[in-house]
Amino acid sequence: MDNTMTYLKTSDLDRDKALLLVDASIQAYNAFNKDEPAECNSDNVTAPAGYEFVGSWTGVDAVFNDFKRVECYGVVLRSQHAPYTYIFAFRGTDGLYDLLDDFGADHTAFIPYQKDVPVPSDVAVESGFYHIYADSDGATPSMQNQVFALIDRYQASDKPIHQLYATGHSLGCTLSTLFTLDLALCRPKIPATSYNYASPRVGNSAFVNFYDRQAPQQKPETRTIRIQNEYDKVPCVPLHGERYQHLPYVYLIAFYRDNLTGKFDIVDNHSVHNYQTVLDCAFKRGGVCEETFEYDGGKKMKSVQPNPDAVCKYW
After folding, report:
1. pLDDT confidence of residue 96
2. With 50 as the cut, is the pLDDT of residue 241 above it?
3. What is the CA radius of gyration of the chain?
4. pLDDT (mean) for 28-47
5. Neighbours of 243 (CB within 10 A)
6. What is the Cα–Cα distance from 52 to 103, expressed in whole angstroms?
7. Where do runs of H (alpha helix) occur along 71-170?
8. Residue 69 lies in a domain
């Protein structure tokens, strides 16, 4: 269990931003086509109201550094009117290879896009997450290079970035977090903030401290916020005992599959669609969502008052 969390109230969140970015995270999944994993399918992306699809990128999945596959990993959505807001939405787990990365434990150094930007030597991140972000297969540029090429292209266009939002769900949160830190270090003049949904732990305590010292984290309106379900076990990995720690600002919700073993469910308690439903309900209730709802063809889900003391208690 992490010991330095700041648990936020519903009133601490920007309602429009929180609902916009969970929708954007869903669209990052929609762009992925299992039959053609390296091609981002823009036809399946339904941009939120007031936004349009303008770009995408890939990343390299590697299992035990043996098998590498290029996959679509994210989409860029841009507001339709100036001043322009850009959303960089990172896709979450969608298969065995991604899941193995989610449960990794090895540490590696974080190297920014601009290699000469100093990073403390004790800063370490989970290697599986980092390699998806930073590695190339030798033919396709790394995700890191692709997203910064997009940033520089937009900045040089007649529709420059006025505000940037980074977001993701599950594995996508880890990539969003690495990108957000990279932006703060290498493009500090771009106003950027991040809402993440069901994030695993990304780095060690030195990483969290370094991340939290960056300028965007000093203001409530631009700091990174994690939204986490008490009964979701993905945010409990990599294990705290393996020297991983969460970013400190978290908005806690609590929902689970409404059956005998539902509190131990892995898939439905992690679903981005259920995160979206409960988050929307909490805003409508002006606080905590306490109700039962249907999901995925009639499955019953139950949302209750969250208990911070129970979050990843033995993890």
Report:
1. 43
2. yes
3. 18
4. 94
5. 15
6. 34
7. 96-102, 127-134, 143-155
8. yes
